[in-house]
Design a protein that fits this description.
The complex is a heterodimer of chains A (about 475) and B (about 425).
Chain A: H1 3-13, E1 24-26, H2 33-42, H3 47-62, E2 85-87, H4 102-110, E3 124-130, E4 133-137, H5 140-145, E5 149-152, H6 153-159, H7 161-167, H8 178-186, E6 191-195, E7 204-210, E8 221-226, E9 231-239, E10 246-249, E11 252-257, E12 262-269, E13 281-284, E14 287-292, E15 298-305, E16 310-313, E17 316-319, E18 325-334, E19 339-342, E20 345-348, E21 354-364, E22 368-377, E23 385-395, E24 400-409, E25 415-424, H9 427-435, H10 440-456, H11 461-474
Parallel strand pairs in A: 3-7, 6-8, 7-9, 8-11, 9-12, 10-13, 11-14, 12-15, 13-16, 14-17, 15-18, 16-19, 17-20, 18-21, 19-22, 20-22, 21-23, 22-24, 23-25
Antiparallel strand pairs in A: 1-2, 3-4, 5-6
Chain B: H1 2-15, H2 20-36, H3 51-58, E1 86-91, E2 94-99, E3 108-113, H4 125-133, E4 137-142, E5 152-157, E6 166-175, E7 180-187, E8 195-204, E9 209-216, E10 223-232, E11 237-244, E12 249-258, E13 264-273, E14 278-287, E15 293-302, E16 307-316, E17 324-333, E18 339-348, E19 354-362, H5 366-374, H6 379-395, H7 401-411
Parallel strand pairs in B: 1-5, 4-6, 5-7, 6-8, 7-9, 8-10, 9-11, 10-12, 11-13, 12-14, 13-15, 14-16, 15-17, 16-18, 17-19
Antiparallel strand pairs in B: 1-2, 3-4
Helix pairs in contact in B: 2-4, 5-6
Classes of the chains: A alpha/beta (about 475), B alpha/beta (about 425).
């Protein structure tokens, strides 16, 4: 097989693995104060934002990279990374989509995300992030009518500094752990959402992340604020080209729900997982945290994790308001040499708070999967309850599936229930399906989809279909 | 602390009759312990209850020297009289008596082990401390095809002649093919504040059965740590029952290696804690070959200012297909100030396995109390009845009828 054919073969496995040949502006390689100033400067940020970054950088110098996680990885040289990369054409931000570089539009078309609003019939507002900058946000007019702010983080810093100043870093402080602090220092762009009091967001909001440039880390920051009595559903999707080197992705996502507000956050993560020998792929070290600040608020995380060489994240809920609810639904699939250490934290502080965790892990090939979760019911969180269920499915005896829950109950009025099982697809089930005319791969696909159904149901319609397909593709070649 | 350790160690070497080789081993253990010190919450295994803090808070001046050359008088009032049994009596960390009166003397051998090494890898500085300061280590060998007629009770007692605030005990057991040993650890009450560090090593050959019951019922001020290391060959069975209720602090740690096919391990535990007690059970079951089985059931009843923790780990090697592993931990919190922590962990590398765990904690069910009260019981009685029912479940798992009755009586449960 010549190289061309090989490339085509490769593309079949991971169809988003292409690169876009586009001119980039990059910050100088390495991590230091000058690079941070460069980022802040190019984005024309106010002084307080630069101070925020420098404070985080100062803190970062004192911190050590954590190493308690299950999947180990070779040491990352933080001085050998580009912390800012943007398509040249974005230097002066285009006013409308017509001015956008056609190459960029082409890229998003290939990814199946048309940015032209008219092409979109089902009405999802999209914010597309290309390497370090947000390239386009659609459906702005419709959203402004309701008073909803949905724009890139950089724009929010310019146009809505009060809101950003008030909420940025309140859920994930600059003094948090290593990767979160790194993000606070060098974050480049991301999405900003503000839903005003009493507004139910009329459409799904969505961000699409794409890493294109090589040797670049992507550090985006998302901040979602749902004011009193509002509702928003937010989707996030990710892809990256296939490269032999590992790329770092360390994002921070902060959600804040005030009184009676509800935020639903869904992720379909399909970063490049590396080839079948475990070479290359994305290190997905993301910090996601939601704060149910007000009474009767609700935050719900749904994630489908199929990509990345290493996934290491724990979308968490801090249930501070009385009667607040936290939910976490997750499917994590690892194949070949992928590794995942994921789960959630539910921290109950308010009275009558409730949380629910449903986690489904599937590991195949040589992969390794860990569910790690914390349920902590504080002594003041009277009458709270938690229900956790984590199931793992193993395919083959070269892979591993682990469950590490931490359960802390300090309140005698509260209940915690936890269940976990680990098993494989039974021969009977397979036999039954095959007998009815499915081939083994289809049979496995069917059974796995059934296994994941509880979580897939939580996804918005359009995403659910995509996620279901993704589940099937991720497990291709793992049977037999 | 390291000067105290060194000088107490020198005194120990002077007063006892260790061989040169033994002293060499002991010195090495002491060196390791001085380097690492007591474990603390930075170590994952000690996250929930930090022993170095607890020792600091309870025992101000820790000293380690016990004079093993002098013997102590045995106080017969501590003996369990409702049951015929063989005895091993520890007083202040020294074995005063080994008595197998009910058994065929040819079938049991007591070996003075002069090799004092620890035969497995560990990351636990308390084993270093134990190995440095224990007296002579005895190995009790049960010969092939012999089942002990009566249970063996090990009495752990302390009298007022004790000089130090730390006691280290160790015993090794070897169960020959097709043999059976029923072993009861009986912890007496005492008011002295000591840190007691117990280390047992069990080796179970083919088809042998070990039943170990640890009874810590009577209120005492000791801080205890007990470590059981169990190696199991084909078809062997180990059953451990822990009643954790008396000491101020008690951590039971069990490390079980299922090395032989069709071997199985059962661990059942009860925490019944009152006022300021802090107890923990940590288990590690290593399923290393095919067709092994483990079952764990831990229940807690937690009173005022108490804290219990359960850390259970099931490890399944990639060779260990057809493993069956189960963990269940349940807790009832009776007071606002009680706390329950659990970390039931599964680490699995084989696909054809059945492993599951469950954990539940909460207060007593108000509806059940209401039901009982509407039938004429008062609040206190209903509560007691519910707790009784909750705990009896664990006691029911005990396979030896005689011992089950003994333990039911000791806890004061009603059938």
């Amino acid at each position: 097989m010549d190289t061309r054919e090989k490339d085509i073969e490769k593309l079949k496995d991971y169809k988003y693995g292409f690169t876009t040949d586009i001119e980039n502006i990059k910050a100088p390689k390495g991590l230091n104060e000058d690079v941070i100033k460069f980022i802040s400067n190019i984005k024309k940020e106010p002084q307080w934002m630069l101070d925020f970054r420098l404070k985080a950088y100062k803190r970062l110098k004192l911190l050590k990279e954590p190493n308690w996680q299950k999947p180990k990885y070779p040491k990352i040289d933080y001085q050998d990374l580009y912390y800012y990369s943007a398509p040249k054409s974005m230097k002066d931000k285009p006013k409308s989509l017509d001015e956008l570089d056609p190459k960029l539009l082409e890229t998003y078309k290939k990814l199946g995300i048309p940015l032209q609003e008219q092409a979109r019939l089902n009405g999802i507002a999209v914010d597309a992030v290309f390497d370090s900058v947000s390239v386009a946000t659609t459906f702005k007019g419709e959203l402004t009518k309701h008073g909803i702010i949905f724009c890139s983080m950089s724009e929010a810093i310019q146009k809505h500094p009060d809101l950003v100043k008030k909420y940025l870093g309140t859920v994930i402080p600059v003094t948090d752990h290593f990767f979160a602090t790194l993000n606070s220092a060098v974050f480049t762009d991301g999405s900003f959402v503000y839903i005003p009091e009493g507004v139910k967001c009329p459409m799904e909001l969505s961000t699409y992340f794409r890493i294109n440039a090589s040797e670049t880390g992507q550090f985006e920051r998302t901040l979602i604020i749902a004011d009193k009595g509002s509702y928003v559903s937010y989707l996030e999707g990710c892809t990256a080209p296939m490269r032999d080197e590992n790329q770092l992705h360390a994002a921070n996502v902060e959600l804040i729900a005030l009184d009676d507000a509800e935020i639903k956050y869904s992720t379909v993560q399909n970063w490049y997982p590396g080839d079948e020998n475990g070479k290359g792929g994305i290190y997905n070290f993301v910090t996601k945290r939601g704060l149910c600040k007000g009474n009767n608020s609700k935050i719900s995380w749904t994630q489908v994790e199929t990509g990345s060489a290493i996934t290491w994240k724990y979308p968490s809920c801090i249930l501070k308001g009385d009667n607040s609810i936290g939910e976490f639904y997750s499917i994590a699939i690892t194949n070949n040499h992928q590794k995942a250490d994921t789960g959630t934290k539910m921290i109950h502080l308010g009275k009558n708070t409730k949380s629910k965790i449903i986690s489904k892990g599937i590991s195949a090939g040589f992969s390794d999967m860990t569910y790690r979760g914390l349920v902590d019911i504080n002594s003041k969180a009277k009458n709270s309850s938690n229900y956790t269920q984590c199931d793992s499915l193993l395919m083959g005896n070269k892979c591993g599936a682990h469950t590490v829950p931490y359960i802390k109950n300090k309140n005698f009025d509260s209940n915690i229930a936890h269940e976990a099982t680990t098993s494989k697809i039974s021969e009977e089930q397979l036999h039954y399906c095959q007998q009815r005319g499915l081939n083994p791969e289809e049979a496995v696909g069917l059974i796995v989809n059934g296994f994941c159904k509880e979580v897939l149901q939580q996804l918005p319609m359009e995403f659910a279909v995509e996620a279901q397909k993704l589940v099937g593709i991720s497990l291709e070649g793992s049977v037999g | 602390m390291s000067e105290q350790l060194q000088s107490d160690f020198d005194k120990l070497v002077k007063t006892s009759k260790f061989s040169n080789e033994e002293i060499k081993f002991k010195k090495n253990f002491l060196k390791n312990f001085i380097e690492s010190g007591f474990p603390n919450r930075k170590q994952e295994d000690w996250k929930f209850l930090d022993i170095s803090q607890i020792i600091k808070k309870n025992i101000s001046d820790l000293s380690f020297f016990n004079d093993y050359s002098q013997s102590n008088k045995i106080d017969p009032s501590i003996f369990v009289d409702s049951l015929d049994h063989n005895k091993i009596i520890f007083i202040n960390g020294k074995i005063e008596k080994i008595d197998f009166n009910f058994e065929d003397q040819n079938k049991i051998e007591i070996i003075d082990e002069n090799k004092k090494d620890v035969s497995f890898d560990y990351e636990n500085s308390l084993i270093d401390l134990n190995s440095a300061f224990t007296d002579k280590v005895f190995k009790i060998l049960i010969k092939k095809n012999y089942s002990l007629k009566k249970p063996l009770i090990i009495y752990h007692s302390i009298n007022d002649k004790i000089k130090s605030t730390n006691i280290n005990l160790r015993l090794d057991f070897e169960l020959g093919e097709n043999s059976c040993l029923k072993l009861i650890d009986y912890f007496s009450n005492n008011t002295a504040k000591n840190f007691i560090n117990i280390f047992y090593n069990f080796n179970l050959e083919k088809d042998s059965i070990l039943k170990n019951y640890k009874i810590d019922k009577f209120k005492n001020n000791s801080l205890r740590y007990s470590f059981n290391n169990i190696n199991q060959d084909n078809n062997s069975v180990s059953e451990t029952f822990i009643l954790s209720a008396g000491s101020d602090y008690f951590k039971n740690e069990i490390n079980c290696n299922l090395n032989g096919e069709y071997s199985s391990a059962f661990i059942n535990g009860i925490f019944s804690l009152k006022e300021n007690q802090q107890h923990e059970i940590r288990t590690t079951i290593n399923h290393l070959v095919e067709n092994t089985k483990s079952y764990q059931l831990i229940k807690s009843v937690l009173g005022k200012n108490t804290k219990s923790a359960y850390q259970g780990r099931i490890f399944v090697n990639s060779k260990a297909q057809k493993t069956d592993g189960y963990q269940l931990s349940k807790a009832i919190l009776l007071d606002e100030s009680s706390e329950f922590n659990a970390k039931p962990e599964l680490e699995i590398y084989a696909d054809d396995v059945k492993c599951s765990h469950g954990s539940a904690s909460g207060s007593l069910d108000e509806n059940s109390i209401f039901y009982l009260m509407s039938r004429g019981l008062n609040y206190q009685q209903s509560k007691e009845l519910l707790i009784n029912g909750f705990l009896i479940d664990v006691v029911e798992k005990i396979t030896d009828v005689e011992i089950k009755n003994l333990i039911t009586n000791i806890i004061g449960l009603k059938q």
